[in-house]
Amino acid sequence: MWRSLCFVPLFSGLVLFAQPPNDDCSDALTLCADQPLVGNNTGATGAPGFCPGTSSVLWYTFTTNSLGGAVNISLSTINCPSVAGMDNELSLIVLNGDGSCQLGQFTAASTCEQDSLDFTLTTPSLMPNTTYWLLVGGVANNGASIPAQCDFSLTMNGPGVDIVDVDFDAGPSVEIGNGEFTQLEAIGGTTYLWTPNSGLSGDNIADPIASPSETTTYTVTTEINDCIYSDQLIVEVIRRIDPPNTFTPNGDSYNDTWRIFGIEDYPSCEVLIYNRWGQRVFRSVGYREPWDGDRLPMATYYYHIELNQLEGRSAPYTGSVTIVR
Fold first, then answer.
1. DSSP count for the chain of H helices, then E strands
2. Is the Cα torsion angle 193, 198, 202, 207 positive or negative in sign?
3. pLDDT of 273 higher than 80
4. Following DSSP, what letter does each residue of 147-191 receive, concatenated?
5. 3-state helix, strand, coil in the chain (%, to 5)
6. Rounded to an integer, what distance in angstroms lies between the CA atom of residue 164 and that of residue 32?
7. What is the pLDDT of residue 46?
8. Domains, the chain, ranges and CATH?
9. In degrees to the nearest 10, what's the CA dihedral of 239, 242, 243, 246?
10. What pLDDT, in 10s, does the model give residues 64-114?
11. Rounded CA separation 277/308 (Å)
12. Disulfide engineering: 116 pairs with which of 40, 47, 89, 228, CB 3.0-4.6 Å?
C-alpha cells in the first residue's frame, strides 16, 4: 500500500520515510469492514486542524451499509520510535464531506479521540449508503515539539458498516439427500465467485444449482464499494434412508423383516429386490409391509429404491442385503 521507501537515519534513531500516498484526501485509502489495514504516518503532510494539536495526517474513506448506524473504528498496535521531543499519541476523527476534497466543506461526524495505547472510536449513528472520511493524525502535546509518527493498525466494524448478512448474503445452509440438488441464492453482490466449483452448475452467478456428492462448504465472494467480501453456506448431503445389509427371517420375532429406517417418510417410494441372477423377487410401492424374505433361501440380494419425493426426483438407493437364517 506504500510507495517505495527511501530512508536516511537521522538523530536519536528517527528514520525519514517517503511521504505516504494517502496523506491527501484525494488519495484516501478505502477501509473495509472487518479487514484490518496497517499504516505509518511518518512523513505525512496531511492537513492539521480537525483534531487539536495534530498533524502528519493520513486519510481513509469508508461507505456505510444500507441500514446505517454506529461504527466502531479501532486503532491498535501503536508503535512509535523513541525520539527526543516526539509525542507517542495518535488521533482519530470521522468527517462528513461532499467528495470534493475541499477542506472547508468537511465537518466532524464524530468526536476526536486520541491515545498512546490501543483505543476505539465509536461514532454516532451514521447515514446509510454514505461515504465518510477517517483521519489518523500524530499528536504533539504535553510539551512535545514533534507530532507522533508511528506504526499502527486500523479495524472497522459495527452496525453501520457490516456488509455480510446485511447487504450481502450467501443464503441459508441447506440439507439434501444423496444424489439430489438444490439452488443456491446469494443476494446483494455486484459479481459472484463461488468456491469450490465442484458440484455447481456455474461459479460466477448468484444462483447456481448445487449437487455435491458429499457435504460441502461453499464460499461466495463479491466486491462492494471497492471492498471484497465473502460469505459461506453449507450444503449437507445426507442419506435419507438407511437400509440394513442383513436380516434374519427365522421366526424368533427379532429382526425377522427388512425394516428400512426412514422410509416411512416417503409413502410413494418403490422398493425392488433382485436375486443374483437379476430376477425380481420382491416389489412394493409405499413399503407399508416390510419384506420378510418370502421363504427365499439364505443368499445376498440386491435392492433398488426410488423415494419418489413430491419435491422432485432423486438418485435411487442401491445396495445389497443378505438373508441369514
1. 0, 23
2. negative
3. yes
4. ----EEEEEEESTTT--BTTTBB----EEEETT--EE---BS-SS
5. 5, 45, 55
6. 11
7. 72
8. 8-157 (2.60.120.380), 174-238 (2.60.40.10), 246-323 (2.60.40)
9. 130
10. 999 999 999 999 999 999 898 999 999 999 999 998 999 889 999 999 999
11. 26
12. 89
At 24, list the grid cell: 491527501
Cβ atoms of 90 and 75 within 8 Å: the answer is yes
**Average pLDDT value over all residues in the chain:** 91
* Cβ atoms < 10 Å from Cβ of 154: 21
Q: Considering only CA atoms, which of 111, 100, 116, 115 is closest in space to residue 70?
A: 111
Q: What is the mean pLDDT of residues 156-178?
A: 96
Q: What is the DSSP letter of 19?
A: P
**Tell me: the pLDDT tens digits for 133-155?**
999 999 988 778 889 999 999 99
Question: C-alpha angle 28/33/35, rounded to 5°?
Answer: 80
Beta bridge partners, 32, equal 35
Query: What pTM did the predictor assign?
Result: 0.81
Distance, in Å, from the CA atom of 325 to the CA atom of 322, rounded to the nearest integer, reads 10
Q: Which residue has 433398488 as its cell numbers?
A: 304
Q: Which three cell numbers stand for residue 224?
A: 462492494
Query: How many CA atoms lie within 13 Å of 274's alpha carbon, on the beta-carbon side?
Result: 10
The grid cell for 101 is 476534497
Grid coordinates standing for 61?
474513506
- 68 is written with which cell numbers? 446505517
Cα–chain-centroid distance for residue 210? Answer: 19
First to last CA, the chain: 75
Q: What angle do CA 266, 267, 273 make, to 5 degrees?
A: 80
